[in-house]
Design a protein that fits this description.
Layout lengths: L5 H9 L11 H13 L3 E11 L2 E10 L3 E8 L6 H4 L8 H17 L6 E8 L4 E8 L5 E8 L6 H8 L15 H16 L7 E2 L3 E5 L4 E9 L5 E6 L18 H15 L6 E8 L4 E8 H6 L2
Parallel strand pairs: 3-5, 6-9, 10-12
Antiparallel strand pairs: 1-2, 4-5, 7-9, 8-9, 11-12
Length: 302
């Protein structure tokens, strides 16, 4: 094994699948290469075979990472930079360093610094790799306006509460815009429309406008709410059905349907009944038929 200090070399050889005197096979050799590469101590791992009489000598060559001898931080500071600043003494795996840089950029972006840059340069010194990390956060962007277009069934204050996160610090006017949290919050907004009977509601991708002169962000969320739906035929073959509040002709409410199903499941569990719900949407009449049944009975057939 070439390129490895003697003590480490002995430890690595003991962990190999191939051993002296054994038949040479391709699969154990490939497994050893993968295992050595996954140790994360070398930039590259290669193997060569050299015939020696009737035997074959296998030579592994590892280009080991050198340590990071020094980390110099320049520019502005942010808590998201902590892992980068503490790399001194770690192995100079630049792919890992770049992943930490990208993660730090994502975090400062979520703090409102949309134009932030983090530049990492490295030079080889006598004691190892020296890193210089230059940080420019730029201005902090705040959310100036967030509004929905096309949907009116849900009150603006409900929309605001549904989209905002962390006590209105994220995705609320005056707070920070965080794209992935807004996308996840749209599921809650859709549920608010479903709970009001808008079974065909469609919520489009947010349209984000960034005003770099003012360091402000505005968001429009297109909504096609459609028409409200009502409950059609509701079939519940047990007496408990009369207490669930699902009445034919009443406005469709996703929350009410979910609560009724949960009550049925709690009622059915000790009785050995597995609740199955089937919904049929009638677009022409804008109604939804609900049928509740015992899934176990359905599995066994008539």
């Amino acid at each position: 094994m070439i390129g490895v200090p003697s003590q480490l070399r002995h430890e690595l050889i003991r962990g190999l699948s191939l051993h002296p005197g054994e038949p040479l096979q391709a699969e154990p050799l490939r497994a050893d290469l993968v295992s050595l590469a996954h140790l994360g101590i070398a930039e590259s791992v290669s193997v060569a075979a050299e015939p020696i009489g009737e035997a074959v000598a296998i030579r592994y060559e590892l280009a080991l990472y050198v340590p990071i001898a020094q980390v110099t931080m320049r520019g502005e500071h942010h808590p998201a930079l902590g892992e980068l600043a503490m790399l001194e003494g770690a192995l100079a795996d630049m792919s890992r360093v770049n992943r930490l840089r990208d993660h730090a950029l994502e975090q400062v972006g979520e703090a409102g610094y949309l134009d932030a840059t983090i530049k990492v340069t490295h030079t080889r010194g006598d004691a190892g790799e020296d890193l210089c990390i230059a940080v420019a956060l730029g201005r902090r962007y705040l959310l100036d306006r967030i509004e929905t277009t096309g949907g009116r069934a849900v009150d603006p204050d409900v929309v605001e509460r549904t989209l905002a996160r962390q006590d209105r610090r994220i995705n609320a006017v005056g707070g920070i815009y965080v794209a992935h949290r807004l996308r996840s919050a749209l599921d809650g907004l859709k549920l608010a429309y479903l709970d009001r009977g808008y079974a065909a509601v469609r919520i489009g991708d947010p349209v984000v406008t960034i005003d770099r002169r003012r360091a402000r962000v505005s968001i429009q969320i297109p909504i096609d709410q459609g028409e409200p739906y009502r409950l059609g035929v509701v079939t519940i073959p047990w007496s408990i059905g009369a207490t669930l509040g699902l009445t034919s002709g009443s406005p469709l409410s996703q929350l009410s349907v979910d609560r009724a199903r949960e009550r049925l499941e709690r009622w059915g569990a000790p009785r050995g009944i597995a609740i199955q719900m089937n919904a049929v949407v009638h677009e022409s009449s804008r109604t939804v038929d609900l049928t509740f049944a015992d899934a176990k009975a359905s599995d066994h057939g008539p």
